[in-house]
# Entry
Amino acid sequence: MVSDATRPEHPPRTALTVLARWLGGGTADGSVLRGGAGDPGEVEITGISLSSQRIRPGDLYAALPGSRVHGIEYAEAALAAGAVAILTDPVGAERGPAGAPYLVVDEPRARLGRLS
# Structure
């Protein structure tokens, strides 16, 4: 079982649309927020994780390109564990599961510090 020692008991909630504004101009076409069912303004993020195995309900899953595999390959597992949105690059957004809201930026790894 994953320890929650580094997570606050009552984490702050940040609207997905606020995160999209922070990221601003994410890809060559300027888009950041894509997909998802319903109103993305109602989606609230309470944490962020690079690991689909460490996802907690309300998390943003960061699906990053890797040297051998793209993190988007684990997006279904992250969503099943409670992730409410996915941060990825344009390639990940094209290959990822339909129906989830995405924050799409050209270099997601470079944006993690700001989001965290």
Q: What stands out?
A: Helices lie at 16-23, 75-80, 90-95, 108-115.
